[in-house]
Amino acid sequence: MDWLRQLPIGQYVDEGDGGRGSWLKRLDPRLKFAWTLAFLVTPVLAGPIWRLSLVALLLLITLASGLPLRLWRRGVPLLLALALAVGLLAALLPAGVGRPGTLQRPPEELRLVPGPAGSPAPARAGLPWELVHWGPLSLGPLSLGPLVVTRKSAELGLNGGTLLFTLIHSANLLLLTTTPEELVWTIGWFLRPLAALGLPMERLGFTLLLALRFLPLVQEELQNLLRSLATRSVDLKALGWKAALGLVLAVGERLLANVLLRAEQGADALLARGGRWLPPERLIRPTGGGGALSGLALLALVLLLGLRWQVGDL
User: In Å, what is the CA distance from 129 to each residue of 46, 125, 126, 156, 253?
Assistant: First the structure.
C-alpha cells in the first residue's frame, strides 16, 4: 500500500552508515546545486547531440553514484519511458506549417532551360524535409491520414523528451543526496549578496526549509486518503463520471484541509516553544567531501561549460 514511499522522488533518503558509500552525498552541496543548474540551463538553444549527451551523462552519474539500486531502479526506467512517450507524441503530432514568406523577386525571372540530350535528370539538393511518411492508414472502418514526421516535429520531440528527463532526474538526484538543511543553506549562500538590498534572506531560507519539511507530510496525507478509498472498495466506473468527479473533488478538498491542519499544528508548536527560529547554518553545518573530490567536481563542471560553448550547437 505504501507505493508512494517506494518511489523516493524529490526527498532525501538517509541510508545510515550504509549510505556513506555514495560520493554524491559527500560532495559539497554548492557544487551539486551548480551541476543541477548546468543540467537545467545548458540544454537551452543546444543541439540534439548535446541534449542526448546530457541524458547519457546523467545515466552514467546515476550508475556510478554508489546509491542503492532500490532508490532508482524503478524511477529511472519509468522516467525514461515517460520521456520517450512525450518525445514520440511530439514527433508524431503535426508540428504546424508556418506562414509562407513573401517572394523577394518575381517568379517570371525563373527560366527552366532543358539540358542536353542524354544528360541525367536533375537531383534533389539538400536534406529532405520529411523524414518519415507513412500512410494513409486504414484500421478497418476507420481511415486515417498519412503519418508524417518532419524535421521540425522530430526536433520538437527530441527537445521535449530530453529536457523532461534532464529536468526531473537532475533535480531528483540533488534532492536524493542533499538534506533540506544543506539545500536551504546552499540557496542562501548563493543569494547572500541580495542581503545588501535589505531582503530578509535568513527568514526566506527558514520558510523554504519549512516548505521542504511539509513535502513528506503531503505525500503521507495523500497515501492515507488513497488507502481509505481502497479499503472501501470504491469503483469509479460504477459511480458514473459526475459522481466520480465529485468524489475526486471531495478527496482533494479533504487533502487540502488535512495539509492546512498540519500547518496550523506546526505553527502552534513553534509558538509553544517561544517562536524562536534559527538560520539554516545554525541547524547544520554542511561538510564537503574533501578538497580532491570538490576540486575534481569543479574541474568537470568547468569542462562541461567549455564543451557547451564549443560543441553545444551540434
Answer: 20, 11, 9, 14, 50
